[in-house]
Amino acid sequence: MPITLLLHGLEQGLIFGIMVLGVFITYKILDFPDLTVDGSFPLGAAVAAKVIFTGGNPLWGTFLALIAGFLAGMITALLHTKLKLTNLLSGILTMTLLYSVNLRIMDKPNIPLLGKVTLLEQIQNYFPNISLNYLIPFFFLFLIIILKLVLDLFFSTEIGLAIIATGDNEQMIRSLGTNTDMTKLIGLCLSNALVALSGAFFAQYSGFADVNMGLGTIVAGLASVIIGISIIRIPTIFWRTIAVVVGSLIYRLILIIALRYGYKLGFEPGDLKLISVLLVIIALSIPLIKSRIDFLTSFSLGRKDLQNKNHPGEEV
Predict the structure, then answer these.
(1) Across residues 293-315, what is the average pLDDT?
(2) C-alpha dist (Å) from residue 2 to 13, 55, 256
(3) Beta strands in the chain (DSSP E)
C-alpha cells in the first residue's frame, strides 16, 4: 500500500475524528440521536470558507465556525426542551434550516479556496523545513489529543457527570434536582461545535466548501463510533474517546482503500455512500455476531462438562 494512501487516510481520519468526538457525545453519552450533524458540518465549512475567501484571518474564520456550530446545537436543544419536540424531529428541523443558512452564508452552492491562505498554510510558515504532507497529520494528531484530554477533563467535572447521568437515566437525575434541559443544551452545543470545527478544517484541507458536503456525516460518525467501541470495549470516558478516534481512522482507511481498489469488486466512485452504509451495517453486526459466537462457545463447553459428569470414566 502506498505511503501517500496511508497519509491521506490518517489525515482524513483525524479531521473527521473531531466530528466523531461530537457524535460520540450525543449518541453514546447523551443518548440523543442528533441529525443536526448533517447541517452543522457544512455550516462550519461555510463560515470558515467565507471568511477566508473574503480575505479574513483563517484562525478567526475557524473560531467563528466553532461558534456557529455551538448555536446550531442550541437551536436543536431549544426545539427539544422548550417546544417538547422529539429528538429526531428537532435534529431534522435544524438540519433542514441550516441548508438555507449555509446557502445564505456562502451566497452560492460552493466556495473554492484555491490560492487562498488557510490556517494549515499559516502553520507551515512556522515549520518551513517540514513538508506539508507530514505537517498536516502531526498537526491534527496534536489537536485531537488536546481535544480528547479537554473532553476527558470536562466529563470528570460536576456538569460533565450530570450530562453522563442524563444519558444513562434522565428520570433519576431529574429527581435529584438536576436541570436535564440544561445538560442536554450543553451536550448538544458542545457536540455540534466540534462537528462544525471539523467541517471548518475539512474545508481548508480539501480546498473548498460545498453546501452538500455534510450529506451522510451522521452515518460516518455512527460507523466510526461503533467500530471503535467494538474494538476497545473498556467502558470509561478516557478509553471511549480513544476508541472513537481509532474507529474514525479505521473507517476512513477502509473507505479510501475501497475507493482505490474497489473497482476490482465492481465499485465505482459514485458508490461512496453505498460503501459507507455497508460499513455501518457490518459495524452494527459485529456485537451481535460476537455474542452469538460467545453463546455457542459457552453452550459447547457446557455440554462437554455435562457429558463429563454423566460419564466420569470416559474421555470426551
Answers:
(1) 65
(2) 17, 36, 12
(3) 110-112, 208-210
